[in-house]
Write a structure and sequence with these properties.
- This protein is of the alpha/beta class.
- Helices cover about 30% and strands about 25% of the residues.
- The chain is built from 12 helices and 16 strands.
- β10, α10 and β11 form a beta-alpha-beta unit.
- The longest helix is centred in the N-terminal third of the chain and has 16 residues.
- The relative contact order is 0.12.
């Protein structure tokens, strides 16, 4: 059946449930997107699931397993087009066909070249009624990171800055705890849980010896992959990032000419060393960094500093979202700036963003901005 039936209020309501499921898995399902699936029979939900942590099994497989034989003749509401290719598991489109699903309602088509309408075609060929575009805008928002990565070939990037009123992240002596208050810091930890990876430079890693984990109650298991840009591979082996690497994935990106023996030395701690192409100054290029992260299944990156790293991403025009936490305190020009030199002589060449929202978090403000396209 190739024709699509009208979209009903029930279709929208059940898709909203599937979208809520998908949101719950954000930051937990790399290297696959977090998809929601709801199975409905005679107007009642018989099973619902999201993509499992780690990306497998997929949402459709989880829901079908829970429904068992009751899936025959049911309608499946799926937030992203079911896959059509063989990987570590069979195609979800085929699984829906074999389970006897009568109708599939999809929010967003999958631009992955291995899918890209193939899943829809497979189901239609098998006689399943397929309806697309239900709650499309909400589906694109839920899957924004995944869709952007598939369309651009790189992860989406959020640059998080926590600054004083005058754009400082620390005093001249390096004191920075705490510029923002507890509400803003809690939101920052929530952002970590919703991203596949968190990235800092070697300078920040050395100065702060951070954990780079999500420390919100109930979300500690959602700490993202920790990534350090360290051109010379200088990260201390006694640092928290290294000593906890067997428990929390930690990747260090360095330039290719770093001695192989030095690279191997981190392996015993569980640290993954990723050599990439460097620029004329010996620093990993942002293009190479994002490329290797995409190859390893990362769809979203939260960049937390420091100033040189923030400047590098801005200069590469690689910041998609800017999350600016601002505290009502002034530090002065002797403080450490949030962003390093950009060498902007002409305002026409400056990085520009457009406002996307403002929130008040205690005494602080969070301003969200999107890159102008």
């Amino acid at each position: 059946m190739t024709s699509e039936s009208p979209i009903s209020a029930a279709d929208r309501a059940f898709m909203a449930v599937a979208l809520r499921l998908a949101r719950r898995g954000r930051g937990r399902t790399a290297d696959n997107p977090s998809v929601g699936c709801v199975l409905v029979s005679n107007g009642e939900v018989i099973a619902q699931a999201r993509t499992s942590d780690g990306g497998r099994p997929h949402a459709e497989a989880n829901a079908l397993e829970r429904a068992g034989s009751a899936a025959r003749g049911a309608t499946a509401y799926v937030t992203l087009e079911p896959c059509a290719h063989w990987g570590r598991t069979p195609p979800c489109s085929q699984a829906l066909v074999e389970a006897g699903i009568a109708r599939v309602v999809v929010a967003v088509e999958d631009p992955d070249p291995r899918v890209d309408g193939g899943g829809l075609a497979m189901m239609r060929t098998a006689g399943i009624e397929v309806v697309t575009g239900v709650e499309r805008a909400a589906g694109e928002a839920v899957h924004a990171d995944y869709l952007a990565c598939r369309r651009t070939g790189r992860p989406s990037v959020t640059l998080k800055l926590a600054t004083s009123l005058d754009g400082r992240i620390a005093t001249a002596t390096g004191a920075s705890r705490w510029i923002t208050g507890p509400e803003a810091r809690a939101r920052g930890h929530l952002m970590r849980a919703r991203h596949d990876a968190i990235l800092v430079g070697a300078g920040t890693a050395a100065a702060d010896d951070p954990d780079l984990t999500c420390r919100l109650p109930g979300l500690t298991a959602q700490s993202p992959v920790r990534v350090v840009l360290d051109s010379r591979l200088s990260l201390s082996r006694s640092s928290r990032l290294v000593t906890t690497a067997e428990r929390i994935p930690t990747w260090v990106i360095c330039r290719k000419d770093v001695a192989a023996q030095r690279q191997l030395g981190y392996g015993q701690y569980g640290v993954v060393v990723l050599p990439v192409t460097a620029d004329a100054e010996g620093r990993p290029t942002i293009e190479a960094v994002l490329s290797i992260l995409a190859e390893r299944g990362i769809k979203s990156v939260l960049v937390e500093g420091g100033a040189a790293v923030a400047a590098a991403f801005l200069l590469a025009n690689a910041v998609d979202t800017l999350a600016l936490f601002r505290a009502p305190v002034a530090i002065g020009e002797e403080g450490k700036p949030a962003i390093g030199p950009l060498d902007v002589a002409d305002l026409a060449r400056a990085s520009r963003f457009q406002p996307a929202g403002i929130e008040h978090l205690g005494t602080d403000t969070l301003e969200t901005l999107r890159r102008r396209t």
